[in-house]
Every structure is written in structure tokens, then in C-alpha cells.
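Please produce the structure of this protein holding flavin-adenine dinucleotide.
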Amino acid sequence: MKTALVIGGGVAGCAASHQLMQLGGWNVTLVEAAPFLGAGLRTFHYGGHPYTFGPRHFLTQNRRVYDYMNAICPLRSCAEHQFVTYVERDNAFYNYPIHEDDIARMPDRDKIAAERQAATGVAAAKNLEEYWIGSVGRTLYEKFIDKYNKKMWLVDDNSEIDTFNWSPKGVTIKSGPRAAWDTAISAYPYAADGYNRYFDIATVGVNVLLSTRIERYDIPNRTVWIKGEKKSYDLIVSTVSPDELFERCYGELRFIGRDFHKIVFPTEHVFPEHVYFLYYANDEPFTRLVEYKKFTHHKSPTSLVGMEIPSLNGKHYPLPFKADQELARKYLELMPDNVYSVGRAGSYRYGLDVDDCLEQAMVMATQIKEGGRDYPVPLEIWR
Ligand SMILES: Cc1cc2nc3c(=O)[nH]c(=O)nc-3n(C[C@H](O)[C@H](O)[C@H](O)COP(=O)(O)OP(=O)(O)OC[C@H]3O[C@@H](n4cnc5c(N)ncnc54)[C@H](O)[C@@H]3O)c2cc1C
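Below is the modeled complex.
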């Protein structure tokens, strides 16, 4: 039997383990620093209410990954969810991406129309601010983008954000149907404990070491030290920040984390019927509120809302700055044969979501099975 080490037991590590077990012929060990699998996707309870860290809804364009998750964790559609943002200046909730219908009801629509007319385009944009102002004009930039991105990325000036292909996912202003990602499948598990069953099923037969960290790495030789013991593997799949595997030899990769707060409201429902979570684009410190009942259908006379505040706690969001991405690339290029670096931190890619983690694991399994480096990969995946 060949041996594999999977580092990190979030959805990416669990999916990689599952794919290897399904291939057969692999003895898989998964090492997870926390005392549980699933990381932020794991469902916990507060006041009897199930919740995850953030919305963690299953949003995908990929039918294959949907079918895979749905077979293990049956998923309920939440396609009705409307993506909306609170804009304090107008004291209004507007669709996001910005929608023509909302612009038509803004008090300053004439000014916005003139700015859009005069907008110089995005061809020469060098940073997020220039991209947005060049595309939609200053007023819409100030309402939706300016303060949100400053707090999201903990910067004083959005001109520091020198990549912008991640936002706004190709759309600056929409018209027509309101649902933001209306071509995607949007879903959430039916089960009261959310995705938890997935982590159990995905790791059947896997040697899972919880509350465990790798003490030392020798990646070129696919060797690590765990609990004082030196161990070598035929394959390593890492889902942690790639700098960690090489003793940060080029310097530390930066991430934005999240502080998370839970608030129970004394009412059965807090948000309007088709709003599962809300974005806030103003001076308030939080970026997003989630009303969990919308996803979980939990029955209670009270309702739980989660609040996310950007911070330096945790490695949740790789930075969309050229220098940080270049640094990540240098680390990823050090990965030898049979060492994969996948998942959000492992790929150092903001916007790499749950469905992408599953897809990466499937692609990895196909590459391993077919023994070829030339198998076409739909996502950038590093090995
Ligand atoms: C707040 C928030 C909300 C989100 N909401 C959505 C959403 O609604 N829909 C969606 O599709 N995507 C969402 N995402 C993105 C998506 O959840 C992530 O892309 C995905 O969960 C990443 O999984 P992962 O396994 O790569 O990383 P993680 O979930 O971060 O897992 C990494 C694991 O590795 C462990 N670990 C770290 N270092 C070590 C170490 N040295 N040794 C051992 N273990 C280690 C950690 O404890 C953790 O369990 C959200 C992300 C965040 C942060």
C-alpha cells in the first residue's frame, strides 16, 4: 500500500482523503491541529441554534461537485437568497452586484448617470479603486466598494489593492434577474448538523490525528516529524499556508482573519424572507451578518445571527496584493512531485470556495490515477 499524509482537516483535507480512499491502495493519515474536523464548515450550537463560522452555503457552477456533496449530505436549494448590501448614506439595502433597478431609485441617480457617462473604463486601471471608479464612477464606488474593501483587507487606501480580477466576479453593474449568482446552484445541507456527516464519511478508514501539528518538514523528501517521530510518505497533500512547509524561507505569507460573534434575537425572524445574509459597506466594523435559521430551518421563537469582523486572527483570506501572490507563487513552485498544495490557504487564492476545494481533490485523484501531469486542470492546482 502507498502512504499519503494529508495536512489540515478542513473541507479540502477531508475531500482529498476521501478521493484517495476511493482510489484504493492508499494508507491515508490526516493531521488536524484542532480537536475536530471541518474547520469553519463544522456546525456547532449556541442557544440550541445550529451555526457555522460564516454562511458557508454551497454555491457552485459545477454539477459534478454538487452531485458528490448532495449524495453524502443531501442539499436543500437556497436559490431564493438575495445578495444585498446596506448603504448607510441612502439608508437603503441594495442588491450586490450593483443593480440598474437600484440605481434608478437612488436619490443621486442623476449624478451617478453623469459619472457613468464620463467613466474612463478599466483598461488602464492599476488598482481596485481605479478599476471601480473607471467602471461605475465615484459615487457608486463610495457607496459599495470603498469602505467595504478597506475594512475587509485592513488597508487605509484601496489603491494598495493592486489586483482586482477577483472582484466583482466579472460584473460591475447588473440588469435583469436580481439573484446575484443566478446561474449557480445555491444550496445548504438539510441535516440539522449541516456538513458534519461529510467529514465523518470522507474520513472513513483514514488514520485521523486530531489536536496534532507537524513539528518539522522536509518537503523535498516528503518527510515530516509528528509527535517526535520522523515519517516519510509517498504522497503529501497540504491544505495549510505553503510558507509553513518551507520554514518561511522567503518570508511569511500574510492573511486576513475573522473575529466571529454570535447574537440571539428575541424574535422568530430577523431578516426579510429571502435574505439569508447581509453585507455592510460603511463604517461599521463588521462585513457580514448571517441569520442561520434561513439555511438550517431550525425551529425556535428566537433567531441566531452571526457577525464577522475582519481581524488578524486566523488564516482565512489570502491577500489579493501582487507582492503577496508572487511570494505565494515562489513557495508553490518549490512543491516537488507528489506534493500537492490545495484548499484556500494551500492555493493562496481568495475566492477559492467549498466547491473549488472539492473540485481540486477530484482533479488530484484523476491525476494520481492517470499518472500524468498533462491532465487538463480546470483550476490552478499545485503539486
Ligand atoms: C468566514 C468565511 C465564510 C465563508 N463562506 C463561504 C460560503 O458561504 N460558501 C463557500 O463556498 N465558501 C465560503 N467560504 C470559503 C470556504 O469555506 C473555504 O474556501 C474552505 O472552507 C476552505 O477549506 P480548506 O480546507 O482549504 O481550509 P480550512 O477550512 O481553513 O481548513 C484548514 C484546516 O487546517 C488546519 N490546520 C492549519 N494549520 C495546520 C497545521 N499546521 N497542522 C495541522 N492542521 C492545520 C486548520 O485547523 C483547519 O482545520 C468562507 C470562508 C470564510 C473564512
